[in-house]
Amino acid sequence: MTNENMKQKFIELLSSVNRSGIPELIRWLENESDFFTAPASTQHHGACEGGLLRHSLAVYENLIKLMDLYFDDYEQETAIICALLHDLCKANFYTVSTRNVKEDGVWKQVPYYTVDDSYPLGHGEKSVIMLQAFIRPTMEEIIAIRWHMGGYDDAGRGGWNGSAALSAAQKKYPLAVVLHLADMAASYLTEENE
Asked: At what angle do helices 139-146 and 174-185 cross, to 10 degrees?
């Protein structure tokens, strides 16, 4: 699927969410962010132009499968919001730099992505804060997006503010677990096979 086709699918899905602020969010994504061209990481999954868009759609596909498997009933809008916007924090987050690489015995400058975090607020919590500038997510959506990194989130380690908070969030809101699984599957299984 081309980047333009993925962008159209993303916008169609997000446009189907009937919440105040969605049109403004889409306008921001298209006109004031690099969301549709940004990478998903600097060197791992989706470390390429459009990687964030591809990753977000892969998380959506995986989340739908997992929600069908584990939940008797769920809100489609919640699945769309959580999957497509869980990494909203990565919009306007990366820059392109160059580094020296030796190829066939010759040093060349090649482009690579670096992080330029203008608002260092964390990961999941930053996505929630950015999302709240446009829409009012439910508490379940807030918790799922906030903790979508599971135990990989540095804040999820040690003490009440860490592992106990993560565990409590996952017990009270199983969507946090399922979103984490969908994200991991997209990062390590789905996208690796594309």
From this structure: 40
CB burial of 108-128 (b: ≥16 within 10 Å; e: otherwise) equals eeeeebeeeeeeeebbbbbbb
Contacts with 48 (C-beta within 8 Å, 6 or more apart), sequence order? 39
Helix axes 51-70, 76-85, angle to 10 degrees: 140
Task: Please report the pLDDT score of residue 193 as a whole number.
Answer: 43
User: Which tokens in the block code for residue 162?
Assistant: 């860490």
DSSP 120: -
- Written as one letter, the residue type at 124 is G
The model carries a pTM of 0.91
Closest C-alpha among 40, 170, 13 to residue 94: 40
Split at pLDDT 50, 70, 90, the class of 98 is: confident
Report how far residue 7's alpha carbon sits from residue 36's, in angstroms, rounded to the nearest whole number.
7
- pLDDT at residue 78 in the model: 98
Q: What is the pLDDT of residues 64-75, one digit of tens each?
A: 999 999 999 999
Residue with structure tokens 């584990």? 70
- Using an 8 Å Cβ cutoff, are 97 and 108 in contact? no
